[in-house]
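Consider the tokenized backbone below.
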């Protein structure tokens, strides 16, 4: 392999390493912040990526997409049209209820007598009717970045990464983290050790070669000096 190919390979490996380290840091931070969160949801500087689990918001975003949300500090500031992630009670196929999270658009808002928000009426973009259960302000977790309506009343797409939600879920699993993060980092570490040993051996070989050259020159000069002395004695 020539020096140019080695240089290109080195740059590619460095870029891959940086990407892997960044992903590892993001997942690690999200894992630790989720453990310290009352909701059990991790975030990075107040932002949380959510993997979409259904097509209830299609075509705005679909199952397998990744949406970027920002933590809602004051639910009273939310507006109709914004897409929120909230805690809710769902029912599985066996009729058992469990608490989970849902992401739908605010369809309407009901207010108290003092003009504070009483609850949110939500609706999936793919649904013909609004959700049956109202969302209370303290159930709101986050809001999708850049969601809402534009000046013409058209729904904004919001910040998302298509088809990346499934990949994030896999990376957050133990198997995915091992395959995509731990193993590549271990292989890179081994490769760096190999390169370090190879550089050491090459440097040592060059030192030996230089030492041999020096000795050869000294022996040659000594031989020349001896021949000269022998010639003078004759």
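A designed sequence for it:
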């Amino acid at each position: 392999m020539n020096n140019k190919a080695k240089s290109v390979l080195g740059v590619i490996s460095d870029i891959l390493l940086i990407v892997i380290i960044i992903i590892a840091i993001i997942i690690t931070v999200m894992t630790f912040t989720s453990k310290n969160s009352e909701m059990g949801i991790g975030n990075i500087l107040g932002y949380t990526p959510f993997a979409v689990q259904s097509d209830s918001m299609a075509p705005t975003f679909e199952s397998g997409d990744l949406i970027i949300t920002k933590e809602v500090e004051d639910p009273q500031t939310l507006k109709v049209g914004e897409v929120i992630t909230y805690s809710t009670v769902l029912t599985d196929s066996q009729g058992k209820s469990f608490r989970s999270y849902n992401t739908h658009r605010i369809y309407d808002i009901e207010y108290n007598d003092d003009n504070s928000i009483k609850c949110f009426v939500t609706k999936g973009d793919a649904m013909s009717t609004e959700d049956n259960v109202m969302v209370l302000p303290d159930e709101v977790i986050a809001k999708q970045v850049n969601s809402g309506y534009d000046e013409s009343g058209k729904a904004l797409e919001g910040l998302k990464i298509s088809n990346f939600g499934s990949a994030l879920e896999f990376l957050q699993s133990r198997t995915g983290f091992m395959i995509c993060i731990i193993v590549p980092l271990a292989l890179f570490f081994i490769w760096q050790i190999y390169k370090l040993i190879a550089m050491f051996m090459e440097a040592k070989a060059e030192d030996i070669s230089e030492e041999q050259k020096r000795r050869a020159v000294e022996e040659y000069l000594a031989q020349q000096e001896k021949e000269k002395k022998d010639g003078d004695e004759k």
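Helices lie at 3-36, 165-172, 174-233.
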